[in-house]
Amino acid sequence: MPTPFSHLKHAQCLLVDAQLPANMRSLVQQQRPSFQLGCIIADARVTGGIGRELTHFYQLGEPITERPWRAMFLHYPQLAQARDNAHLAFLAGYVAHLALDEFWAENMVRPHFWGREWDVRHKRDKLFALHLILTVMDERDQAELHAWQADSLAQCQPHAWLPFLSDDILRDWRDFVSRQLAPGGQSQTLRIFSRRLGCDVATLRDVLDDPAQLHEHLWRHIAPSLLAEVEARAYAYTRQQLVFYLREFAGF
Question: Considering its fold, how many domains does the chain have in total?
Fold first, then answer.
C-alpha cells in the first residue's frame, strides 16, 4: 500500500486543507508531530515483523467488511478516549492512514491488479507492477515534502498511545522515517521493496528509469490517468473519514 512518504504527503495536504473544518485543522496543525507519526505508524510492521492484520485490521486478499479504523476502535475500545490533544492528533493520523490504505486496496489493488486479467505470463508480474506504481508515487511524493517534515516528525514523543505497539516501536519507526527525510538521508523504499520481491535494487531502478520498460511493466496495464483519478478520490475519502472520526469520537 502507499508508502510512508505518500502518507506524509497526504498529511501535509490535510494540514492546510480548507475543506477540513477549522477546529480540526487547528488540532492537527498544533499537534503536527503527533499527526505525522499517526499517519505512518501502521507501517512500522515492515521492520518489526508484525502481521498486517495487527496494525491495519484487515488482510490483503480478503473482503473488507468493516472500515479498518472502526475495527481498530472495536478491538481496542480504550482508544475511544484520547488522553490529550497530542494523542488525539496521533489517532486522527492513524485513522487517515487506514482510510487511505482501505480505499487503495478496494479501488486500485483489488479491481485493477488482482481482479482483472493482464496479458502477462505470471501473477508475480502483477506484484512487480504494484511495487513499481507504489515507488512512482513514493518518489514523487518524497520530492514534494516540505523541509519541515523531518525535524517535525522527529520531535514526536509518544506516551503509551497504542495497546498493540510499544513506544519503542513507535520511536524506532519515527526515527527510521525521519532519518530518510533529513538532509543527506537516503530513501529505503527500494531496499524494502526489492527484499519483498526477491530481486535486487538495480532491477527495480532500471525499470523505473527507463520509460519503455516502465510502460511495458506498468503503464500499459494501469494508465496514469487511472492512477490520478484513484488518488484524487482516495484523498477525498481520507479527509471524509478523518472528519467522521473527530466528530464521533472527539465531539468536534
Answer: 1
